[in-house]
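so i finally got all the pieces together for this one. its two components total, 808 residues if u count the protein bits. some of the lines might not be protein, just check the labels. i wanna see the whole assembly predicted at once instead of chain by chain like last time, that was a mess tbh
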Amino acid sequence: MLSRVADALFWMSRYLERAEHVARLLDVCFHLELDLHGVLAGPHELQWTSLAAILQQQMPEQTQAAASPQAAITHWLTFDLENPGSIMSCVSRARANARSVRGTINSGMWRELNMLHIQLSDPGFSRQAVESPHEYYQAVERGSCLFQGVCDAPLNHDEGWQFIQLGKHLERAEKTLRILDIQYHLLHDLDSPEDLPLANLLWGAVLRSCRAYEAYQRIYVGRIEPEHVVEFLLLHPHFPRSARYCLQSASDALAAIEGLAPGRKLSEADRELGLVLGELRYRELEQIMTGDLHEFLGGLQKQCGLVSRALQRRYSLR
Amino acid sequence: MSDATATSGPVGDDLFRGYKIGAVYDEMFESPGRPRPHYQALHRRLQSLTPEDCRRRKAMTDLSMRQDGVGFTVYRQEEGIERVWPMDPVPRIIPAAEWETLERGLVQRLTALNLFLKDVYHDQLILRDGVVDPRLIFEGTYFRREFMGATVPRDIYIHVCGTDLIRDADGRYFVLEDNGRTPSGVSYMLQNRQVLKRVFPQIFNQYDVRATEDYPAALLDVLKHIAPGGRPDPTVVLLSPGMYNSAYFEHTFLAQRMGVELVEGRDLVVDQNRVFMRTTLGRARVDVIYRRIDDDYLDPLTFRPDSTLGVPGLVNAYRAGHVALANSIGTGIADDKGVYPFVPDMIRYYLKQDPVLPNVETFRPLVPSHMSHILANLDKLVVKTVNESGGYGMLIGPASTAAQRAEFAAAVRARPRDFIAQPTIALSQHPTFVDGRLEGRHVDLRPFVLCGEKIVVVPGGLTRVALPRGSLVVNSSQGGGSKDTWVLAR
């Protein structure tokens, strides 16, 4: 496979996954906003401003200073093409990458991505983001799901498919780690008995941000416990959005790609990925919880960054 | 052409209400209200439609094209303006017997053009024998002297040819021009059929329409046929300038349908006259390149040194016979508008046959009697710059101003090699959906001819239609659209 094509497939997949994450985070925020009124008085700006931290984007000053931070942040994260992390930016980039390899991907993949782009660019539909946010953000998620469907079903699970998987799982792992890191920092001292209803609501939102709420509820009964959330989102071997599962899948994809090379040696990307995966596979939960979680999660995120850079060096052009 | 000369009259009281048959040839009607035999079933079907049906089909067509992302692109920065090339859902129908003549004429023409190119890059007998003026060749922009004496695989220069045909008021076909460099449009021919089957399936029932589906496979056969050293299982790639090229959709479409890699210049590297592509597993050898990059940009070491689209060293690798190119280098001298008037002579010279398809009568300023005729009749003629295409650099006499004519007169006198002149031919017209009813719009036809082991014409072609009322310009860049083109099996 052409290196340029591998690169484009990887980024196409990552950008679409990223768009889906932003959409879900916003959707969860809107729902939470409505629920919070009954529990907590006053403005709830923190959950909106924390989005910028999760997405690691520097919010422009006028957005920070806007009269209605919710509307300004929503617009900035949804439509602003100046913001490389906005949904429209990500979907446009995913589409541009797909377009550059239209000869390689199947026509269904291109069609789904193109239709999503057409839908989201439509001014009439864009109004939904304000009037009926759930409908708008659901469309992004549905578009991403359809894309993955047409990608998995009729495409050979060949090298190109593996690059798509690699991009998707690395992106997911990084987002899960990031959400957990920021939210745990914000929520961990909500532990007095009178805070419990609020804590339950907020931790539920964290799980929903990772599409993990229902899966979590099937395993752990009762009020949501921060420690269980950490265990589930970080270490669960089978939940498809846990950091461990995602990195394991990324590692499998990489092994499939590199296994094709004759006389292969362990590559740098392989090694970095193995190191971060080892932390999640063999580290005890108790040890993680008694230590500095922020530092631990920060280390994992840094390690993921090294994996991405090693991949770029190995597979990008020239 | 204006409607003032039209013999107008109502030809129906439905979608055809007010349909005008001008002084031109109408593809569907022999006279008002009387469709030609091969159009009768379609005509009945169209009569049964309401304006609402008509609008709906048109909207479905547009949506279908948009969702598939079929179109050409005008890019600014990262976010591009992608325009969908409008398709009209009323198909153009060509009866079997008519097609048989076209096919024969196209095969004959491409045979002669390939013989001409071989001759002109080797012995130049046709110039020695005085059939073609040597000055035309040596002063031609697209003559590649760098390529003299080079041998090309199987002596084929033009592997893919798009020949533009038009019909005069009597319905006779003429060749307007040959496109022997990197002709485009074939993906629209294929895509239009797919779309029409989706939005208008009923109208196929009463016709035996020949399939066009085979084109990608036929093209791949041609490309494999020219593999260096007759290698049995060559690696074929399609070389594209990339996603900013206006025909990028077509490049991806053909690469996908043929199952070959779509590469850009930066994906290829030449090492010791062998061509390789950079892959995730290292370098992989390339045998045949279907290139959709013009000569000028192909290889900065041979042609334009500032080209970043090409591959340094590619031309030498080709000359050395380690890689094959389709189309070959320097084919532009055969579709040069200045050389065009001589194609019928080439057919007589090389094949000892009379041309099946006539040229449009053409005046050449290099001939003194032609020059005086051109200057005296600028208001009636179409004057074309020989090196321009896409409807640029043209003077359409009847629609020109005195100032434009004076400008062209001066230019023709100063640079006679750079111009030709032809009578203004009104293209034939075809019923086309316009605002919920049918109106006549001018059309041309570009069939695609492939030359490999033998010459094949895929039954069909791209019918381009000038959508603005009265317009004669069918180019996509100037408000043109297209139609599905049916060749009937019997």
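The two ends of chain A are 14 Å apart (CA to CA).
Chain A has 17 helices and no strands.
anyway lmk what u think
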